[in-house]
Amino acid sequence: MVTHKNIVVVGAGFGGMYTTKRLAKKLKKNHDVTITLIDKNPFMTMETSLHEVAAARVKPEAIEYDLQRLFSRRKNVNVVTDEVFQIDRENKCVMAKHGSYPYDYLVLGIGAEPNDFGTPGVKEHGFVLGNIEDAIKLRDHIDDMVRLGARERDPEMRQAYLNFVVVGTGFTGTEMAGELNSWRPELAEKYHLDPDDIKITMMEMAPTVMHMLDSSDAAKAVKYMTKHGIVIKTNTGVVGVHEDYIDLKDGSKYPTHTLIWTAGVKASSQADKLGFKQGRGGRIIVNEYSQIPDDPHIYVIGDVALYDEDGTGRGQPQVVQGAESAGKTAWKNILAQLNNQDPVKFKGNYQGFMVSVGPAWGVAYLLNTFHLSGFFAILMKDLVDMIYFIEIYSGYYLFHYIMNEWFRIKRPTLWRRNLNRYGNVLWTVPLRIFLGMMWLVDCWYKVQGSGSWFTNKLQLHFPWLVQATSGASSKASATSAASNKAAQSAPAMFSLNYDYGHSPMPVFDQMPLWMQNITKVFIPNKDVALAAQKAMTVTEIILGLCLVLGFCTFLAGGLSAVFVAIFCLSGMNYWVNVWMVFAAIAVMNGSGRSFGLDMWFVPWLEKTLGKARYGVMRPIYYGNTNSDKK
Ligand SMILES: Cc1cc2nc3c(=O)[nH]c(=O)nc-3n(C[C@H](O)[C@H](O)[C@H](O)COP(=O)(O)OP(=O)(O)OC[C@H]3O[C@@H](n4cnc5c(N)ncnc54)[C@H](O)[C@@H]3O)c2cc1C
Predict the structure, then answer these.
(1) Number of the ligand 1 atom closest to the C-alpha atom of 18
(2) What does the pLDDT read at residue 14?
(3) Residue 173, ligand 1, Cβ within 6 A
(4) Residue 479: its pLDDT value, please?
């Protein structure tokens, strides 16, 4: 007899999300298994980008990925927003604040939190970067300190406001300091300060920095950071934190209102209460199958788990690739248990390490071979983030990631400011209307009079159509419309605008052979050509109307560019008209949303499509979100 099985995953972080997505896909046809994903937040947080929120590069929403949306198409997954505080192993039940959840297999991926090693004052006066609330709090505090510093007349007090100290030079510290440095010019401008008044200092207890990097990469990062004004102090231990200064190990004091503690991580403190054996940093000890050693039904993955892979007792690195590797072991072994197969062992898959120093520069060491810095390193980092969205099957968040990191951003990125969308779109509205009018005026001559494209007179003078119609075999009769017209008047002259007294030059005298071969497939004979010329005219009218009214502008602009390019290749257009391709591309910049029907149409479309695909988003207090699925 088949009995129903419950798989419960606690923690929708990098590890938990990846595991749930894989299990949901692999078990989508198995109606005897239900998966429950529990997280204390209704969204997944992209922790690796917390510094971007803390330094106001992106908004918090840019790194929060809605769980209802992520699982709206997965009928076998219940998404629950609840905080787990205990696991009843005897009754196989997860206990959370708002309910209890029975399990046959449990995957625990509740992550890590900052570790201040008991340093006095960090909790009261310091700032950390462990979750989205920390990042928002830090962002607001930094802005506040610069504002207060800009008003302070006492030089010492002012410097305390404008000194920002990052303790620790690991991933988090380096990325935070780099990001803060990229915010510095904006902050300075906002509060009328000299950017040099704002001082960012990294303090490291050890004699060297950035130990997660190869020493040559670390040296490059140090050189870049120092060159851009970040002070890096080694052999500098912070032993106490106060409201407006910190105590250093050498007995001195350093004035600051902002100490950002990134010097260590430990397992989520919730792990202490779950009753499992813990190792270094409070991490829960697991065996080579990512299971609790005495309970093969409980898997622990990611930052909260410790698998002593290399026998040093340190455990696997607390990085995304470690969380994914453990998640892979967990989902594979749960499937193996369901199918009575042999389990697989954990194998850390570490492809490399990448660190950003602000949005436009970074260092990376990939596949134990390639050292990258600058543009290529940061591009790799972005691509790796994008790959994660593919791994969790989310095209929606992949799209938004690209938009938020490259387009909806004011700061220079790896693409400098070339991609940012903050230009004034309104200026392209007249161009859009003019382009639309151009199509409509062009069509006016195609719908009436002797040159109408709606009669049975062939207007597409393609060689194979002309030959078939006239029976003429000479190539001369098979010239294009453009070259025909040009031949009738003065000799054609190359120019990009119409030069009075000269005939414009066609882009192609005759359709290139490859274009002929393609076109012949779609327009093989006169009957199809007559239908095609009518269809083209109707399409041009629609394009013209869309552009004039600002309706579906992106599509209309794109199609206009394609149409003009096709006309050029068909020998039916002149160099003086080529500007239309570029104008058509330019109006794809959202000019319809700026002034046109797209102001209403695009939001309506987004809402309707979103509803059709993801269902109606419901508040968390409704409880289980599964009931709303389509
Ligand atoms: C600023 C910063 C930068 C980083 N940069 C990098 C980097 O560049 N590269 C890299 O590889 N790694 C980086 N890391 C580390 C990386 O983020 C972690 O290794 C990774 O997030 C671990 O994934 P995880 O699934 O174990 O836990 P997490 O991603 O932390 O997810 C844990 C989840 O559990 C949930 N949770 C916790 N407690 C409970 C509870 N009691 N009940 C219900 N839910 C709970 C949380 O809400 C969270 O969603 C960085 C970390 C930080 C903070």
Answers:
(1) 25
(2) 98
(3) no
(4) 45
- Report pLDDT for 424: 80
Ligand 1 site, residue 174, Cβ cutoff 6 A: no
Same domain, 253 and 274: no
Closest by Cα among 228, 183, 235, 177 to 202: 177
> Is-contact 114 261, C-beta < 8 A?
yes
Is the C-beta atom of 283 inside 6 A of ligand 1? Answer: no
We report the CATH number of the domain holding residue 234 as: 3.50.50.60
Residues 271 and 345 occupy one common structural domain = yes
Nearest ligand 1 atom to the CA of 355 is: 8
pLDDT at 152: 97
| pLDDT tens-digit map of 121-138 | 999 999 999 999 999 999
pLDDT digits (tens, 9 = 90+) for 195-232: 999 999 999 999 999 988 889 999 999 999 999 999 99
73 and 30 in a single domain? The answer is yes
Is 590 a pocket residue for ligand 1 (Cβ < 6 Å)? Answer: no
Residue 419, pLDDT > 50, answer yes
User: Same structural domain for residues 438 and 567?
Assistant: yes
- Residues of 348-363 as b/e, b for ≥16 C-beta within 10 angstroms? beeebbbbbbbbbbbb
Give 539: exposed, middle or buried? Use CB within 10 Å, 0-12, 13-18, 19+: middle
How far apart, in whole angstroms, are the C-alpha atoms of residue 187 and residue 193? 8
Task: Dump pLDDT digits (tens) for 285-339.
Answer: 999 999 999 999 999 999 999 999 888 888 999 999 999 999 999 999 999 999 9
The answer on 103 and 143 residing in a single domain is no
For residue 414, being part of any structural domain is answered with no
Q: Which of 47, 87, 381, 405 for a ligand 1 pocket mutation test, highest count of atoms within 8 Å of Cβ? A: 47
- DSSP codes of every residue in 5-60: EEEEEE--SHHHHHHHHHHHHHTTT-TTEEEEEEESSSEEE-GGGHHHHHTTSS-G
CA distance 463 to 529: 12
Pick the last residue of a domain from 331, 349, 367: 349
Q: Is the CB of 171 under 6 A from ligand 1?
A: yes
Is residue 613 included in any domain, yes or no? Answer: no
* Residue 414: how many other CB atoms lie within 10 Å: 22
166 and 86 share one domain: no
Whether residue 170 lies inside any domain: the answer is: yes
pLDDT tens-digit readout, 43-52? 999 999 999 9
Give the number of other CB atoms < 10 A from CB of residue 281.
Answer: 18
- C-beta of 50 in contact with ligand 1 (< 6 A): yes
Condensed to tens digits (0 to 9), the pLDDT of residues 53-71 reads 999 999 999 999 999 999 9
Taking Cα atoms as reference points, which of 14, 11, 7 lies closest to residue 328? 14
Domain span including residue 205: 122-263
Q: Is 183 domain-assigned?
A: yes
Is residue 341 very low, low, confident or very high in pLDDT (cuts 50, 70, 90)? very high
Q: Are residues 220 and 343 in the same domain?
A: no
Decide: 111 in ligand 1 pocket, CB within 6 A: yes
Q: Count of domains in the chain?
A: 3
Band of residue 469 on the pLDDT scale cut at 50, 70, 90: low
Domain shared by 516 and 563, yes or no: yes
